[in-house]
Amino acid sequence: MSLRESTGTGLGYVRLYPGDLALVSLAAAVVYYLVMTFEPGSAIRLLAAFPLVAFLPGYALVSVLFPTRERRRGEGPTAGIDLFERLALAVALSLAIVPAVALALAVTVWGLAAEPVTAVLAALTVVLAQVGAIRRLLVPEVDRFSVSAAMPSVGVGDPVATASTVVLVASILAVGVAFAVAFGPASSAAAFTEFGMYTEDEDGELVAGGLPGETFPAESIPVVYTIDNEEGAEVEYTLIVQEHRLDGDGVVDRTELESVSVTVADGERADVSLEVTPEAENGTVRIAGLLYAEEPPSTPTMEDADERVHFWVNVTGGDGDDLLEIESEDEDEEGDVLDLLEGDDGEDGEGADGVGLDGADGEDGADGEGADGVGLDGADGEDGADGEGVDGEDGEDGVGFDGADGADGADGADDADDEDGGLVEDILDSLFGDDEE
Which fold has domain 193-315? Predict the structure, then answer.
């Protein structure tokens, strides 16, 4: 009768709303606010997250599964459980819900982070609490679970209740210790430094894996080292670049190429661009980047560095200047050949415009043969007077290809490139001069 009157005023369901589920919903909202407000690693944030992980979602789910009170002696069977069973089951179900939520978020765009996990757990707790409240209100009041009705049923001298209490307290303590061990070190382990090694492409973008595998002696290699500071405070780093020559037993020669100090604010990244020049003249060496968050040791090694990266490069003999010298020598030799063909030296009569193409081929082997052998176009004259040229009817009309009217043979001996006389003129004089006299 009172329920109908309360319903008529619109406040009946508010008074009947389960107080424990209202407290669970409010606690979930408060936990979400604290986790979003405080920085990662904060003790307040860690303590606030504990009930959301270890108790609240499980209790809300238990209220959905068991809306009725526990069965008492002398009463008919019901589907309810007592208060201690309800609390213990809430802890167990919470520890089952959290991993399921984390696995589901890991494959979404939000990823596995504190903020989305907290938001989903808080929302899930509130939704389950509302569903549990509705289920309780649908149960007759005499069978409906309530915390106040469940408390008197706990007997002080009841050994079962005492054992249940001990088990429940031990379970909560175990969960608390596991939570502290799991999340406490994780908060400190979240402090880290990320160290990378890249090169720049044509657009100035950083790319990985673009470092050369070969280089020449004294040739620089552009390298960009990146330092991401997630240590929770500003850090002054020391970057050391070394060249290592190794054999089967390890490093046999260690040379320091660069040493740079870089201060990076928390949450920031610094890009250090260096021109690394190996000192080796040949062979394969390792170029190692060693990063120290504190003062580096007197002899830095890859084993004692806080962070390390490296790449291998083969130094081959010869550099760009040697190649240019070789190319220059080839060009000089080619020029000598061209000079020889073009007959720049008129006295020797070498090349295409010298002795060669227009002289006579006398029968006199001494004058018409040898290294400076005369040309291709003359006739086979017995002597200078009878020798016929390409353009002359007889010896008087000119011997050579270009001879216009060589009365004495010397005027028509060769082309314009032998104007200074030379070997061809001497040959023509010896062949034809005596006959004309």
Answer: Immunoglobulin-like (2.60.40)
